[in-house]
Structures are given as C-alpha cells and as structure tokens.
Amino acid sequence: PTDGLCKLILNEETGYLKESDDELATACMDIIGNSELRKKLSDASIERSIDLMDKEIYRKNVMRVYTKSI
Predict the structure, then answer these.
(1) Which of 21, 27, 42, 55 could form a disulfide with 16 if both were Cys (CB 3.0 to 4.6 A apart)?
(2) 45 near 14, Cβ under 8 Å?
(3) Is-contact 50 57, C-beta < 8 A?
(4) CA 56 from chain center: how many Å?
C-alpha cells in the first residue's frame, strides 16, 4: 500500500491494507459477500473521516505538532 493510504486506513477497522494483489482480492470478496462487514467498515470509515476533518481536532493536532517542533 502507498504511504498515504497507510495513514488513512486503519487495517481491518476502516478497510484493509494488504501486501499482495491476491490478499487484497480476497479482502474485497469478503467485503462484497458480507453485508455486516461492509456496514461495519463503512460506519467506521465515516466516523474516521469526520474525526480527520473536524476543525477542532485538526487544530489540536497542528498545535501538538507545532509545540513538539519548537
């Protein structure tokens, strides 16, 4: 997986990060074939995106990084 995806996707919580195409294909088939899993991943992804885009959380993260760098 690419670096950006590794920071966004929480493996087996909001999606799947796999090393090989075969592993990824198997994970995709699991998602397609399991509506409960699909809903769980979808709900967790939506919640994560809200957290990542929340202005207050973003501000706190920026301040934490800024404070550590000085």
Answers:
(1) 27
(2) yes
(3) no
(4) 19
- Give residues with Cβ within 8 angstroms of 24, minimum separation 6: 16, 18
9 close to 16: Cβ distance less than 8 angstroms: yes
The CA distance from 13 to 23, in Å, is 16
Kindly tell me if the per-residue pLDDT of 1 is higher than 70.
Answer: no
pLDDT in tens, 15-29: 999 999 999 999 999
**Distance of CA 43 to CAs 6, 11, 21, 31, 47, Å?**
19, 14, 25, 13, 6
pLDDT > 90? residue 6: no
In angstroms, the CA 32 to CA 51 distance is: 26
